Each structure stands twice: as C-alpha cells, then as structure tokens.
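Handout, tutorial session.
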Amino acid sequence: MNVVRLTVAQALVRYLAALRTDNGEPLFGGVFAIFGHGNVAGMGEALYRHRETLPTYRAHNEQAMAHSAIAYAKAHMRRRMMAVTTSIGPGATNLVTAAALAHVNRLPVLLLPGDIFVSRAPDPVLQQVEDSQDGGASANDALKAVSRYFDRIVHPAQLLSALPRAIRVLTDAASCGPVTLALPQDVQAMAYDYPASFFEPRTIEFHAPAALPREIERAAAMLRDSREPFIVSGGGVLYGLASDALRDFAHKHGMPVAETQAGKGALAWDDALNVGGIGVTGSSSANELAHASDCVLAVGTRLQDFTTGSNTLFTEARLVAINANSFDALKQNAAAIEADARLALDALSQALGDWRASPQWTTRAHRAANDWRETVAHVTNTPVPDGRLPREADVIGAVQRSDDASPAGDIVVCAAGTLPADLQKLWRTSAPGGYHVEYGYSCMGYEIAGGVGVKLARPEREVIVIVGDGSYLMMNSELATSVMLGAKLIVVLLDNRGYGCINRLQQACGGAPFNNLLDDCKQGSLGAPRIDFAMHARSMGALAEHVANIDELEAAMKRARAADRSYLISIDTDPARTTEEGGWWWEVAVPEVSDRDAVMSARADYERAVKARNGIHD
C-alpha cells in the first residue's frame, strides 16, 4: 500500500482540497482562519501549503467569519461550503453562536477549533479551561450541543474515519448542519503514514432520500379529500433544488403557495399562485388562505412559531409534511413524507394525476395573490408623511426602485429586527437565492458577515445588506474584510437610535419604553452618543454617505451600484412606524402580575388569545 507521511493538519487540509461536487467544482470554497497559538503552527502551515487549491481568508472576528462561511453555503443551496479554523479558548468559543445558527437553519459549516494538548504535559496552557472534576474537559465541549457531529481528534489515524463521517453529515439532506472537529495543538503537528488513496480526488454525492410509496399514497388520499389545499414552501425547497417542481405542482393542481423566511424566492414574486410570506411576518393574503384551508402541504419547513402563528394558523386543516428530516416531518402531528422535496413533489404529483383543488379555491388564490402584489406596490411607493422619518417599507421601496434594469436580480441579506418582517412581506425576487434572510436564529450581527459569504459565493450579483443600527454596532468588522477581499457590498443602514423592534414589542406587552432606544437607556453625563455611521464605514476602507430622505437614498443607491468597492448608506428612520399590512398573532408571554395597568391589560389580551388557540371561548 502506498502511503504519504503527513501531519494531521496537512492530511486534513489535503483531504478537503481533493473533494469535488458533481459539476467538478471544489466542495470547499476555502477556509476562514484567525490564527492563534492553538492553530497557527499546525493548521497555518498546512493551509499555506495548499493556499492555491484551498484559499485561506482572514477575518476580524471568529463568530463573524463562521457567519460568512454559513452564508456561503446557503447561497450555494448547501452544494458548496467552507471550513473555519480558530485557536483555542476565546477563538473557539466565539464559534458557539454561529454553530447554533447553522444548526437551527440546517446549514453546513466545518468548524476546526484548536484544542488543548492531548499529552497534558504543559497543562494548563494559555486560554485553557480547567475543570476540577473532569480532566478531559475543554472549552470546545461547548460546541457539542450545537453540532450535528462532534469529534476530538486525539490520534492521527482517527482522521480516516472522522473525515468521511463529517463530510456525510455536511452533505446529507436530513442531518445537514455544523460539524466540529476539535484539533488539539500537539496532535495537529503529529505525523502519520496515511494511505495515498485517502487523498485521491473524489466526487461527493449529496444524499437525499426518495419517498416511500405508502407515504405518498396516504398524502395523495388526504389531498384528494380536500377542496381548499394550501402549500407552505420552506428552505428545503431551495436546498433540494425543487423550485421548478414546486411551481409545476402548484399550477398542475391549482394550489396557492406561501413562503417561509427560508423558502422565500422558491417561486417568482409575481407568480400567479404566490400569495406571499406566511405567518407572523407574512402577507394578509397568505394568512387568510392558510387559516381557511382544509389541508396544508408543508414542504421543507421546520414549522417554527413564526410560520404557524404560534400554532394558531392551520387550525382548520389536516397537515401533510414533506421533509428529509424525520424530526421536522413529524411536527404538528403531520402525515409525514420523509423525503427530498423535489423527489417527493414529483411522486406526489404523479399519484394525484389530474386531481385539482376546487376551481373556486384556485380563483380565490389568484385574486389573493394579485391583491397582495397591489398592496406591496402601494406600501413601498407611498410618500413619507410630512414631518415624519421614513420607515422600513419606504427604504425597501427605494432600494428596489434604484435599479430600473433588474431590481429582482439583487440579493438582499438581513437577519434581525423589524427588517426581516418587512422584507418577507415586501421584497420582490424572481429567482431562488435572491432573498437571503437568516431568521431561524434571528441573529443580530449576521448581516455584514453573511453578506461577505454571499458575495464570495455569487460575485456576479449585487449583494445588498440591509441592517439596523443595533445589529451594525454588534458586529461590523467584516466590512473591512469585504474591502480587503474585493467582495463589494452595498450596506443600507437604518438608524432608529436603538432597538426599535423590541421597543415596540415591549410596549405591546404593556411595558414602559426602557433600555431599548438609546434615549430610554441609563446614561452618563455626556448622554447617548450621536454615531456617524458613514464616517465609521469610511474608516474601514468603504465608501459611505449619510442621506436625509428617500429621494436622496435612491440617488445614493445609484452611486453605490456604480462603485468599485463596498459602499454604506445610512439613513435616519422612525422607530415607531412599521408596516401594518399582513402579520399574524405571535405568542409572547406577558407577566401574570404587575403594578402597571398596561401590563395587566396586555395579560388579559394574551390569555384570551391563548384560550382561543386552545379552542376555549368566553
């Protein structure tokens, strides 16, 4: 047997560099790295050796670079991905939030944190977490709960089994998510005689299960018994490359389609059966139809509370769920089809034959879809009232109007606050991937880092990051990374002087405005700072300007589109006004006792809503 003598780090990097997708592209688009004493010697040397075939990207924050890697995989519909390497200690634990984000969103990322010495000879090393009751404890243990597969490489031969297992999880439709291979720094440097065949180029097959005939027949029978069926399209439609199958299925059988945050873009925004977003941040048309439906076909969705209206939206319907992951397919007591979205939709359509929904239902869906498109046009083109600051809808309208040629060709990136709600309602996209909003974990700080990953994946597209001042202040350093990499972003920053979304929720629950908007926070003698976001962006190498109104924003967007580097535009917005159209109830627990009348009134409303969900009426 031919062997190659390599260190663990060298073997790992060489293995990753040899993997290919079915169209011949490298499976791994690169490795994001911030070096420290736990990875600079081992992984650093190995990455340098393979820097031409497996590029290394330097970032400014470990959580942010993991966000970039996750966004890269999402933009590639999970068909390509990235790895991330950090030192031990804070570098590794900075990955925990990003790993949770990838876990919740079912997105692949390979995490390669450095770890403590297996030999224990120099214990305790710098940044080592010690446990008086567990000598083998490591800070990396914090990643176990948020990894779909975790392994600590304590011997060089372990890679021969750990790496294939890791790749299978990363490329499996059912188990996809973050993988952590913790790399003790002494083991990284150990040499071993590896079989040369282990490093031969190989094509990775993405595993997606086909539907069982009995599951298809049961679902087909349920749909045939319905007259007013309804489709909820989730992220699994996009990741399963099932957009065409979904469109064909919906039109053949006359069924309206609503999209989750992760599934938005599966159908073109102006498709006759696309009734808009679903749930708490969805359209009024979609929610009205969903609530009236007698059978819901949920395709590739986790059915989280924003999709189901905290389990109040589908109360009159039986549920059929298509999902590669059995855990998700069985939610809501659904009739499960544990399968890939495209394969299942094709099989289900064949089983249904010429069956169609009630003609009246399909006609109602066409009318509802058109009504919502008219609502979107009205909301995004209504002038800002005199004396008022613009709101999110005004900004979204201006951004999309700023490109007369193909506004639906942009990729919008966002993650948290009011913006995802308004974007799900109002953003128009004509192709899969044009809507990139991380709302499974709703992680503030994802936006700019995610934008970098999207731009690396889709350099030919205009990537527009829309972000609030709160998220920007949490994590903005990857704007400098975007400039360094030539990964141009347009960042539209809405400054409402604090956390406007949570401030409104606080008051809706009866609370007093407190600790959310800067003016309502505890302050020293100098008061809350006035932040010049344009100046801050320019300090990191981007172009930037502040605009005073929507007309100026449209003009600035044209300059940003023509720019040769990342460009930030800031605009002051109203923290109190938001889009009233659309939406649905969301359960947020209100205190049962309080000395505030407003809280007790909100509690009474909450209790009535919970009773209604449970079928109890006063």
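The second record follows below. Compare its token runs with those of the first.
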Amino acid sequence: MTTTIRLTAAQAMMRWLSVQMTPESERFIEGVWAIFGHGNVAGIGEALHGIGDALPTWRGQNEQTMAHAAIAYAKTKRRRRAMAVTSSIGPGATNMVTAAALAHVNRLPVLLIPGDIFANRRPDPVLQQIEDFDDGTISANDCFRPVSRYFDRIMRPEQLLTALPRAMQVMTDPANCGPVTLAFCQDVQAEAYDWPQAFFEPRTWRIRRPEADAAEVGEAAEALAAAERPVLIAGGGVLYSDAEAELVDFARTHNIPVLETQAGKGAIDWQERLNFGSPGVTGSDCGNALVAEADVILGVGTRFQDFTTGSWAAFQRPGRKLISVNLAGYDAAKHGAIPVVGDARLTLQRLSALLAGKRFSDPDFAGRDAWFARTDEAFAPPQSAAPNFLPSDAQVIGAVQRQAGEDTLVMCAAGTMPGALQVLWRAAPGGYHMEYGYSCMGYEVAGATGIKLAAPHKDVVCFVGDGSYMMANSELATAAMMRVPFTIVLTDNRGYGCINRLQQECGGAQFNNLYRHSNVAVQPEIDFVAHARSLGAHAVKAGGIAELEAELVAARGRDLPTVIVIDTEAETGPGVGGTWWDVAVPEVGQGDTLKRARDKYEQNLARQVFN
C-alpha cells in the first residue's frame, strides 16, 4: 500500500524543492525571494512560513530585481545552484517578465512562481485579472511563454508530480538551461491532496557532460590543423564547464591566442601571454587585429553575439572558417560554422589530442604589449587639478583597478561601463561578472546582492551609472537589511551618457538622453549620497580619483553596502579599442551630419561577412 501525506499543493511544492540536492549535498534551490499579494500570500506564503529554514524566504522590494538577484546568484554559482522567485497575480507577475528574458538570453536557471487566476473560475474576473475576449485560458502569465525554457500552468495539485521534475530537468540541463515558469493558480495552491511519501525523498541532480560526435571533432581538428593563423574565442560556456585549465593548456600547447567575450572574461588570467583581450565592438586593438587576419576562428561556449563579431564585420579574412563548440546545437551551427556539439572541457581535450602537439606561429606579442601600454594611458590618474575637472569612466575604472585585490570581482550590466570594462579591465580568474546578453539596465544593484550571497568571500565592486541606478535601486535597501556588503561605484554623468554618444554617432542631434537635452523645466540635482543613506547604505561623495581610491579601501571593512558617488563627464567613451556596431542609421533625414553617418554606415555594411 502506498504511503501518502496530505498537504496543500503549495506545501507540497516547497517541501519537494527543499530536498532537490546537488552532488555536494546542497539544495539546488537555495531559497525563495518573495513579495506576497493576493495571488500567492494565502497559499505559497503559508507554505513558505511553514517550511522555515529548510527553504529560506527573503523579502525583496521589486519582483524584477528580486529575480535579477536570483539570476546573478545562479551565474556566480556557474548554474550549479539557483533560486526561486514568487509573486502575486497581475503586475507582480509581469514585473518578472523582463528578468525571465534576461535569464533566457543568458541561459541561466531561475524558478519563477507567479500566482495565477482561479482554476475553478468561480470568482472571475478577479482583481488584476487580464481577460482575453477570445480565449478563456489566457492570463497575464502567458507573457512568460516566449521568455521561459519551460512553462507550465498548475491547474490541479497532482500536476506538480510531473511539472516539478520537468522544471528541475530543464534548470540542470547544460544545453537547455534557462528560466522555468510555473504559473500557480491561486485556488490550487490552497487545495489539499494525498501525495505519495516517496515524492519527497531527497534526489540528487547531476549536470551531465555530453561528449561531441567523433566526426564533428575530427572535422574541426582537420580545419584547425590546416590553419595558419587560428584564434580561439572563449565564451561563458568555458566557465560553466569549469574548463579554464583546459583552455589555458590548449592555448599553450598549440600556441593559439585567446580572446574572451563578455561572458567568458575571467576564464583566463589577463597576465597570460596568450590572452589578447577581447574581440569585436568592445574589443582590444590587438584582439581585433588577430580576428581580422584569422583564417580559422574557434569559438568555445559562445553564441557569436554581434558585439563579439563586430556585427560580422570583424572577421575579415576571405575564406575564413568558423568552428563552434557549444552544448546547444542551435548555437553551434550559426553562420555556417563547423558545429561541434559537446562539453567545452571534453572537447578541448579531444581536439588537443587530435592536433598531436602541433604548434602555430607566434601571434603578434608586440601588438599585445602596445595595447596594454595604451590602456595604461587610458585609465591613468588625471593630471588636471582644476576644481571643475571631471574624470572619464576609463579613469574611474583605473582607480578601481589599482585598488583591486586577488578577491576583487567587478560587475556591471548596461551603459558605458560594460564596453569600457571589457576593453580595459584586467581580470583575474573568476573576477568578472557582466550581464551583457540582455544588457539590462537595473540589473546592477540587485545583481551585486546575488553575487555576494553566492560568493561571500569576494570583494564585489558594482559599477553603475546614474541612469541605471535611477531605474532600479530598491534592492540596496534589501542588501542593507540583510547585511550583504559590497561596493557600488556610482558614476553620475547626469543622464544616459552612453546612448547620447551613440545617438550622435548615428547622425542624430543630442536629444532626450542627458537631462540638459531633455524636455524638463528644471535640471535635477539628485543627491545620490542622501538617497543611498536613506536606504541604509554607507554613502559618500568622492571629490576625485584619489578620494575614490581611498574610499574603495575603506569600504572593505564594512558589513553593509557602500555607495561611492563620483561625478564624471559624459562625452568620452573608453578612448581605446573597439570596432563598428550595426545600429541602423536613417536613409533620409535632415542635415549633413546624418548624411555623413549614413554614408559611413553603408561603407561598413559592405564589410559584413556572414559565411
């Protein structure tokens, strides 16, 4: 006779999640971020209170940023652990859609549990219910379908018996990993069911390492062996595979230069002689010189985003070949690449064995040395002592770099800083975290919280501009309440400086980006120090680069977040590196500036090479 236990559906969900384990005997779902409302407070809220520390609950300030914290946690844990996020029905749920898209683009696991409408439909329409005039099965949560790797609507308790294992399978699948949405009808949350006791036995989830097909590896090895100037581009898949040692060994054994994408940066130490920085739009000069002449480009764990490829204008050599090592066949076959569908670590080992000790000619080490000399100049301390002098973002990065230690981890997401950091930051292994798949403004503060929760030993430094900070800063209060210490470097250029420069590069007038070019009656003077203090953080204003460096050192001794505000100028980008980015310029319009921008755009379009 089957032994059963009577629980509500919400109680069963939380009990089951609490015993899904990693091979290291840790919970895969570390805990649940929650903002309660009428769609989840009675069912899920009661269940979370009842389970207590067996599945901890944390209170956030905004559903989107709670999910950002959870996603940053999973990225820092290299997809080996994750968090869940629950919201009420309606606006609480749709607030999480942006975060779901972020996780989907970045292939990161997060379990989203929005409350949903009544399955029995008796009280319809309920508060905040979206009604589709043509489809009675639709709710606001259907917005999650295109941005979830797995979506399910729980309309009967026993559906959890299949939905929950499916959710875990997706989040632990190295090829299909991404966000899971279980839309939980609010009446079903509260319904009782006699669950098999065996359903709640602990289960260990292992992340597999799929081996690539021998024919695919052989074809890739043959193409590499015939190359004259190969280049390896390391993406985030190298980190998720824990393949850093194999990457370095492969590069050194065969004398192949390595470039890192935003997601892959930190896979190889910047001091490694074969590390030539980054490719593409935010690439190093020496890196872009390599990919321009490369006859074979080996991508490992990268999806060849447009920033990596310079919108497919950076890989210029006629007849060049792409090899793409990726767990997802969808990514491996992009742009006519030779696909190698398999785990990065295992594939690098097998490729190296097939190359049988073959070594290629030295890359341009003199160009690499010249590049680092140029970056030294870019983020050197400013020489001006004028009272109204404002430093550039590059100089701010230089200040943080000079004060960085072995445990420093810098993070960012949007604006000027991601490009400047990829070009300039000299990352120690594991010292870089960038959300640049979705480049989501507002990820930064919440993301820093998630990173520090995942890696308490790290000295986490969050770069955020005033524009992103204004979009989403409320989880700073959460970090202060939870005593999660990290350092925010808040650069204030009084608007959206990055997109203002792009607007001008595309031939447009300065319009609606910086406050001074916007339709406002009064130019704002926002006191970010006072604001951050009001949320519970330690906050100071740095009068210049020297003060910034001193405050960075002082912040390390605190047990709460520190916000260091520094005024910067909005006109200068990184000042070094980079190449063209395909942002469409109007074909017709007013002014010679627009015409010149369009002419330049058409010239660059002619440089695009797709296969």
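Points raised in discussion: The chain has three domains: 4-204, 214-367, 377-567.
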